[in-house]
Amino acid sequence: MADCIFCKIGNKEIPSTVVYEDDDFLAFRDINPVAPTHVLLIPKKHYSSLLDLSEDDADLMGRMMTLVPKIVKQLGIDEGFRVVINTGAKGGQTVFHLHIHLLGGRVFNWPPG
Ligand code: AMP
Splitting the chain (113 residues) into consecutive groups of 10 residues, what average pLDDT does each group show? Predict the structure, then answer.
């Protein structure tokens, strides 16, 4: 997608702090972290959101999920972390290219307690 910021990060038109990369995925530091460690994991292929997925994407998405333990171990947050996928404007999504937030360390107070 020509005007998608995460497509541009994925193809290196826009710089980012990369923590993991392979042919299909990129993980990079969030520019506005809300936790001590805040990384975004994206597929290089453009999907606007989770709602774009169909059965044909099961293999790619399965591989994306299996990268999570690898990346959080590399980041040193495997003792405790959160995985967030905001979906739709009413779900807090601001960049319309599917991404997984990996949040480690002290994060927002949810669930409260
Ligand atoms: P969301 O609100 O779930 O769509 O998350 C989008 C995230 O992308 C936010 O946490 C932003 O801080 C982050 N973000 C936006 N632009 C950049 C960028 N150029 N580099 C790194 N992170 C970005």
Answer: 94 98 98 95 98 98 98 96 96 97 81 64
HEC secondary structure over 44-105: CCCCCCHHHCCHHHHHHHHHHHHHHHHHHHHHCCCCCEEEECCCCHHHCCCCCCCCEEEEEC
Q: How far is the CA of 92 from the centre of ligand 1 (A)?
A: 11
Mutational test site, ligand 1, from 17, 84, 95, max ligand atoms within 8 Å of CB: 95
pTM, full prediction = 0.96
Q: Which atom of ligand 1 is nearest to the CA of 14?
A: 19
> Does the 5-104 domain belong in CATH 3.30.428.10?
yes
Domain boundaries, the chain: 5-104
